[in-house]
Design a protein that fits this description.
- By secondary structure, this protein is α+β, with helices and mostly antiparallel strands.
- It folds into three domains: 1-64, no CATH class; 66-127, no CATH class; 131-163, no CATH class.
- Helices cover 41% and strands 12% of the residues.
- Strands 1-2 form a two-stranded antiparallel ribbon. A two-stranded antiparallel sheet has the order 3-4. It has a two-stranded antiparallel ribbon with strand order 5-6.
- A hairpin with a 4-residue loop joins strand 1 (14-19) and strand 2 (24-29).
- Helix 4 (87-102) runs antiparallel to helix 5 (105-112).
- It is elongated and about 75 Å long.
- It starts with 6 loop residues before the first helix and ends with a helix.
């Protein structure tokens, strides 16, 4: 990504994303409150850089590549105790949350850069809500909760405690 593709250069709450292999581009909206963060980043870490220069550089000063990003995200995930974290997981989480918030599959398709709506629909399939035990408030795995006569859902542990009283 070049500096010219970011709010640091054009000041709009959007990123211009280019796919050089397919010779395509799209505009991805970002929250307006992130615009100053991009501007601050360029001012502090890319002072003197031209709009055509890359926004992120590796330790060697070359453009930051996908493998470097993948490695860094994996390392951060391991250090944070998150299992198999990688860039695709972050992308998927963004798309699902955007769909859950906006309920607009076309908007998500545009943000994802998908050519087919079917690809977007399969990427953001709605997740069933997490069921919780009404007694202890712990999450209950699908199919493991029991609805008792009062209508409450109990986890196996709380159900066992109820039966042993």
């Amino acid at each position: 990504m070049h500096i010219a593709d970011t709010p640091a250069h054009h000041g709009k709450p959007e990123l211009h994303v280019r796919n050089l292999r397919r010779n395509t581009s799209r505009i991805v909206s970002i929250p307006p409150e992130l615009v100053p963060a991009f501007q601050r980043f360029v001012r502090l870490y890319r002072a003197g850089a031209q709009p055509a220069d890359f926004l992120f550089l590796s330790e060697r000063g070359s453009p930051f590549g996908y493998i470097s990003l993948y490695s860094k995200v994996r390392r951060i995930g391991r250090e944070a105790g998150i299992g198999r974290l990688h860039p695709a997981v972050l992308r998927h989480a963004f798309l699902v949350r955007l769909y859950e918030k906006e309920q607009d599959l076309r908007l998500v398709q545009e943000q994802a850069g998908h050519a087919r709506l079917k690809s977007t629909a399969s990427a953001v399939h709605p997740h069933p809500p997490i069921q919780r035990c009404d007694a202890c408030d712990k999450p209950v795995a699908p199919g493991h909760g029991v609805r008792i006569d009062s209508g409450q859902v109990l986890c196996p542990s709380c159900l066992s405690d109820l039966r042993n009283r």
